[in-house]
UniProtKB/TrEMBL annotation:
Gene Ontology CC, one term: cytosol
Ranges for domain Hydantoinase A/oxoprolinase: 204-484
Source domain of life: Bacteria
Domain (Hydantoinase/oxoprolinase N-terminal): residue spans on this chain: 5-182
One Pfam family it belongs to: Hydantoinase_A
Domain Acetophenone carboxylase-like C-terminal: 502-666
GO biological process: glutathione metabolic process
InterPro entries for this protein: ACX-like_C, ATPase_NBD, Hydant_A_N, Hydantoinase_A, Oxoprolinase-like
PANTHER family, alphabetized: 5-OXOPROLINASE RELATED, HYPOTHETICAL 5-OXOPROLINASE (EUROFUNG)-RELATED
GO molecular function terms listed in the Swiss-Prot or TrEMBL record: 5-oxoprolinase (ATP-hydrolyzing) activity
Protein name in the entry: N-methylhydantoinase A
Amino acid sequence: MRSVRIGVDTGGTFTDVVMVDEQTGEIVTTKTPSTPANPADGFMAGIEKILNGADPREVAQIVHGTTVATNQLLEERVSDLGFITTEGFEFVLEIGRQSVPDGYGNSYFWVKPPRIVPVHRVKTVGGRLDHLGREVRPFDEEGAVRVARWFRDRGITAIGVCFLHSYANPDHERRMRDVIAREHPDAVVSISSDVLREYREYERSVTTLVDAAVKPTMRRYIANLESRLRTPFSVMKSNGGVLSAAEVVHQPITTVLSGPAAGALGAALIARTAGHPSVITLDGGGTSTDVAVVIDGEPSLTTEGTIGRYPCKIPMIDIVTVGAGGGSIAWISPEGTLKVGPKSAGADPGPICYGKGGTEVTVTDAHVFLGRVPPHLLGGEIPLDLDAARAAIEALADKLGLTPERTATGILEISAFNQSNAIRQITVQRGLDVRDFPLVTFGGSGPLLACRLIDILGLPAVIVPPDPGNVSAFGLLTVDVKNDYVRTYVTRELSLDTAAAILGELEAQAAEALNREGFTEHVYQRSADLRYYGQAYEVRVPAPSGPVDEAWRDTVVAAFHEAHEKLYGYAYRDDPRHAVEWVNLRVSGIGPITRPTLRRIPAADGEPRPDHTRRVFFEKAEETPVYRRSDLAAGAVIRGPAVIEEYGSTLPVHPGFTATVDAYGNLEVRRDR
């Protein structure tokens, strides 16, 4: 009996599925419409479709990228949530931070949003620890009982607990959890020392509350899938690793960027295999576009991420998301100007051309009107209503006083600039020159604006992988099991013995988790957060394995100076007035897997021939050759204007551009010199 692994990525419009045969290496892909009302239905439909009647016992593993937790936070479906903190600190959420979000140059125009937990559902318990974890006042057991009963009597079943300095000593939080379990057994509880054992009370509180908020939803979703599957499955995490479904229900916050993280990792492997170790990745879906940076084969990580308006200080791949997908809606502002997104038609009802009840013009409708996508999607599975798209574009053009062609082109131009702004945000604002990086673009709508992004940003090239609509699902099959652990240790005089003890404890925690996952081979990656004394925020740098000695400390400090200079343009290597301060020690425990092998494709034999022609509007409307991607061999060159079509995506090659097929079947798009 053969053995296969399946990756399932649930997006806003489509659920993408990839299957890899572990014996032959054969890769099979498919897509099915997402089911927003119950994502598990789309998941199961995708599994059944790709198996195509095969024996389900052949499935050795399923890995899932899900947006369940992300969507709950983005849509702010957070209710019946309670918060317990240290006596005297009940307003930690209300005070928050003084920073104003980007886009509000003048803080007078910014209104503080509602807190994740309103102040009337915040309760405090007596007891106090100092910053070293020493008990200053004993835990108030009677007060804890009263608080637990207060939440029980009001039916509040999701509770976050964050006590002052519990990162240094979790004892009081664990005792509070025990009290809640005894007095309010129906409650789902998250304690900050389990979620984020790191200092900064506000961020730790919100991160813990986000975990508590999504726990009930994720548990129901995972239970639904487990009841319908015969195969154990894993879930993609935001940090670039996976975790079994049985474990992920205990730390659901780690899944908040599940799908986008898989896409960045899949694109990184594809690009590295093709000889491009450092790239920008762009995942264009139906609802949004996700952008990340890969340097030397690894996506950049951050612990300063946010989901919607909630800061989440868990390690995650550094991804910028904008509402610029195929379903993004074109609309006219009160000032009479054309806007695109961030509101999306999603999968239901979808763009007007889907014929499912959509009434607002979308980016996909503009592509259809201009002839840049075929009159059907998924190889004919989803026919498109060209006449409906045309009528809607013409009606919008009448309101704007423009021709239909200019209106549709304008919609795509605005969408391209929205995507380019996201790319600048993750490159230029991080001190990187966007012109140094090829762009790997994927997702169903990702390749559609490739040529415009080259012109807008000055990119050297755009790489479009085979089956771009399924790269995120493919990425799920390239991911190791990975867990992250952190301990705050603020000091200017690092005790090597203390640092070694902390790292040893973290590695022991990582080993225990990997053993539960069934791994006998363990890999540990260390890192540390450092800053110059007096600074408010840290820089995370890698730390070597091996003995924690003077050479180890010097290596980490040297890496910090170099990283600080790269980020901010200066460093204080030889200035004793600016001491280096250690803040956090981190360990990632990794259980390595066997990754799929990407195969070379045969070389071209003669000039590629178009499959047919279609009237397409670029600078003007003209009959344009349309190529099937499956017919293109390595070395094939397609000069614009042209359109290259495949099952899950389309690449319009504009006049003045050339697409070349590389040895692995990727399309490299460049502007003609």
